[in-house]
Amino acid sequence: MIKIPQQVIEEEKNYRTKVEDLKKGVIEAERFKPYRVSMGIYEQRDNDTYMIRTRIPSGVISLEQFKKISELAKKYSHGYVHFTTRQDIQFHKVTLDDTVNIMEGLLETGIVTRGTGGNTARNVGCSPLSGVSQDDVFDVTPYALATTEHALKDPTMLNLPRKYKIAYSNSPEDTGNATIADLGFVAKIQNGEMGFEVYGAGGLGGSPNVSIKLEDFIPASEVLYHVEAMKELFEDEGDRTNKHKARIRYILQRLGEEAFRTRYQETLQKIKIERSIEVFFKEEIPTKPISKPEENSNPLVFEQKNKGYYALYVHAENGNLEVENLDKVINFIGGLDYEPSIRLTNTQGFFVRDLLGRDAKRLLDIIGNFTSTFDIDNSVACAGAATCKLGLCLSQNLLSAIKNRFSDVDEAIKQQLPRIFISGCQNSCGQHQKGEIGLYGRARRVEDGLVPMYVVLFGGAVGVDKAVLGTDYGTIPAKKIPELLYRLANLKKASGLIDFTEFVEKEKVAIDKLIEGFSTIESEIENPNLYYDFGSEEKFSLKGRGPGECSAGVLDVIKLDISNAQAHISEFEKTKASIKLYDASVSAARALLILKGVDTTKDRLIFKEFVGHFVDTGYMKKDIKNLIEDLLDYKLGDIDSLENHYEAVKHLIHRVSQMYESLNPKLEITLAKEQEIEASQNTLGASNDTSLNIVDLKGVKCPMNFVKAKIEIAKISSNETIGFYLDNGDPIVNVPKSLEAEGHEMIKTDDKYEGYNLLIVKKK
Amino acid sequence: MDFNDQQIERYSRHIILSEVGVEGQQKLLDAKVLVIGTGGLGAPATIFLAAAGVGTIGLVDADKVDLSNLQRQIIHQTKDVGKLKVISGKETINEMNPDVNVITYDTFANASNILDIIKDQDYDFIIDGTDNFSAKFLINDACVLAKKPFSHAGIIRFNGQLTTYIPDNNTPCYRCIFKEAPPEGAVPTCSQAGVLGVMGGVIGTLQATEAIKYILGIGENLAGYLLTYDAITMEFRKIKIKHNAKCSVCGNDPTIKELIDTDYKPPVCGI
């Protein structure tokens, strides 16, 4: 178990207050949303129903915690728990009030939800059989747990450009998914020393790629340096303004492999000098006595490396386990006179480990009514369009239909196919790219309407020297998938090949032909079935689909404040009610404070922080303070009207919007400071027009300074003026000439600055 | 106009040009060009279009990369042998310039699909990079009917030629010059005869130049001219050509009003 930092515990406790604020209308839904998501709570398709995601660190869960989860699911979540593909547990279809109850209940047994959604370091992956599997190099679990502890202590890990997924594997087989993560560690012994191979910048989802190897060997004690190095690289290079291209793998794509490695190593070396964050764990001495081995042929039972002990895999269809069944497992474990360990897997199930042979057999009988011994029955499917706002197809219903198709099929056929990984859309919650068979949902429009389809992928794998994304073999209507798989199983049996991927390679021609035959979309009259998804009475449509919540972030909140400010001021223009000017000022002053870590609803504090962060630092001209004083007096009742401040409020909103628009990918304001502009204008004796925009091109070399000047000039209208700071030397010699050659008018060059100049240009 | 820092740097040498500038670069990023055939001509043309930041590029080809292609089809690499050319092309472009959205059509253009492909993204300009007469006539007729500008080109041995068709401009089309495909076997196709690898590079790059200038709306183009290049004598010739009033597709009384498969027989290998 890990130690939860006090700060995180406080944040969890504070959730109730935030929900109450929302209900009272103190905070808006839009503002609540990113907060809620960062607490691991997502809204589902049906309005006002929520999913709450726990953080079970690396899938390590105690019996007591398991009991609590069962109890909470019974009370608040319709008697089901959902096991995820990232070694977590989720509660589905929960009301907002009950999310509070669940969160508080979880906290009693040391489970938190903070950071399980949004732009954070997510649950750290770990091989579920680490420490016990036959191929175990050494137990990596302590390192994985130390990583979670480290991440929870560091608030910046909870405010990254996008999510950050770390994983550990105990052997090159990579059962922890380290070779497709943002940062992955694979256990390795070199010259008798424990350590890791390090992988990075991988990931599924859009533009997926397998990781690149960053280090061939690092001592095990150094893992946190790498966790920090990748985080810093992410913070420095991740694009916060475009959430679709923010993940670490896009940094790799942007920089190229060589530059990425160089940046990574530089960051790593810097951190090694600045900090001291080694972790040491004593090598575990097996405390359990060796027991008598039992005969075992059941595929759900895994013989451990400590002789005579067994791990049993438990899996419910689609990862949805009824509490009654969960309780049977819990009661059985509770009744033993020794303590087995429990580990959640990344395949929507869990292992009960360290069981004696006879007990593994007894537990096998208990789970027999809901866990199948066939790989295909234990396939993985994301939540899909049933509950997820991004989902296209009903992926879980597809899996049920596949299981049905194979239910009374000859066992020799049924055992032909491996576990299938199904996602309801191209986002990879079902990890379709890593499966030997992967499917992901897509919609295709034909003459008679939309058809739910799945792209069929073969040959995906994780692991050292073998990680590869599945290859696209074609797209076929959802309704034809079960039959396709059945025919595929027959084809494989006839081929006599055991390994599925080898079968796909050798029988490619036959498989291509088979898939082609299944890809036809008949008209609705001929085959109406194709136009309905599994388990749906309604014709297939994209109804109910909405934007994902996962990355709702600060930009949305800033935009909300600015648009509120604009709404208030236009309200004032109609009604001339001074309170509207006041409200507009509060919204505008508040908008950017979130970037400074200030989130408050108290007006007085908002104005104070605004002055501290934006006026005293020069971003806004000083006389805005007069407005703020009058605003405060107005609120106290000392002034009746703010009407004569209309222009000042307008200016405030204008500047705040400009600052917002100037945010760079690191969310820094790049707009020139208003006080500097004023100063330069005073010396120029220019007009009182405070809107002169000055672009800072100091330090930008020729010809990029000219290029950037052209970009800025393109944004303004003819006859408008704009200023540029340009360095002495070539820049101030060349840029004006080049701009003049394009027909613009050089108004003035001011060389009173040290080392640079202000060039004012009028657009042609 | 909303360029990020990488884009500003990537396209800086374009933006500096007063004929391109910020607005021109934006036009390129907004533009959609269809390249039919990803071989000797299509490969270099596509590479330069992608490098220039043409935002959407469609690639049409059903062929797979063969080792014998690599002497001139520079968009493919040795590791791509056996891969579909459109996929290999897409991968090369994605690696080079992530701004480009590549749309692949894993098929040969034929009478029944070509108009749909052109309409799929409402392409602004089409590049004929094919290696046989029936495809060239097909592309010509489709572009005339769909009123789309396109660049025709052909290469063989040490020779190359190209022209540009602009609709509604009294521009002669390919059929105005060469009424119909020569009888089978009269002229060897590229796959039967040799070709100097650079020929595709020179002519394909000129095709890309025509596309880019058309998008930017600058300079003169090859509408009304056939440009020929002889690499042995190192001579370029620009021959004036006229619109043919009797042309069966763009003439006053056209007989080709729709595309029919049987009119465009794929080449049959005579050997």
TrEMBL record, chain A:
InterPro entries named among the record's database cross-references: NIR_SIR_4Fe-4S (IPR051329), NiRdtase/SiRdtase_haem-b_fer (IPR005117), Nit/Sulf_reduc_fer-like_dom_sf (IPR036136), NO2/SO3_Rdtase_4Fe4S_dom (IPR006067), NO2/SO3_Rdtase_4Fe4S_sf (IPR045854), NO2/SO3_Rdtase_FeS/sirohaem_BS (IPR006066), TusA-like (IPR001455), TusA-like_sf (IPR036868)
Q: Which residues form the signal peptide?
A: none
Q: What keywords appear on the UniProt entry?
A: 4Fe-4S, Heme, Iron, Iron-sulfur, Metal-binding, Oxidoreductase
> Nitrite/Sulfite reductase ferredoxin-like domain spans which residues?
42-108
Query: Where is each Nitrite/sulphite reductase 4Fe-4S domain found?
Result: 118-270
Where are the annotated coiled coils located? none
Official protein name in the record: Sulfite reductase (Ferredoxin)
TrEMBL record, chain B:
SUPFAM superfamilies annotated for this entry?
A: Activating enzymes of the ubiquitin-like proteins
Query: Record's superkingdom?
Result: Bacteria
Q: Which UniProt keywords apply?
A: ATP-binding, Nucleotide-binding, Nucleotidyltransferase, Transferase
Q: What is this protein called?
A: Molybdopterin or thiamine biosynthesis adenylyltransferase
Q: Where is the chain membrane-spanning?
A: none
Domain THIF-type NAD/FAD binding fold: start-end pairs? 11-249
The record's Gene Ontology cellular component field reads: cytosol
Q: Which GO terms describe its molecular function?
A: ATP binding; nucleotidyltransferase activity; sulfotransferase activity; thiosulfate-cyanide sulfurtransferase activity; ubiquitin-like modifier activating enzyme activity
What InterPro entries would the database entry show?
ThiF/MoeB/HesA, ThiF_NAD_FAD-bd, Ubiquitin-activating_enz
The record, for Pfam families, names:
ThiF
Biological source species: Anaerovirgula multivorans
Q: Which residues form a coiled coil?
A: none
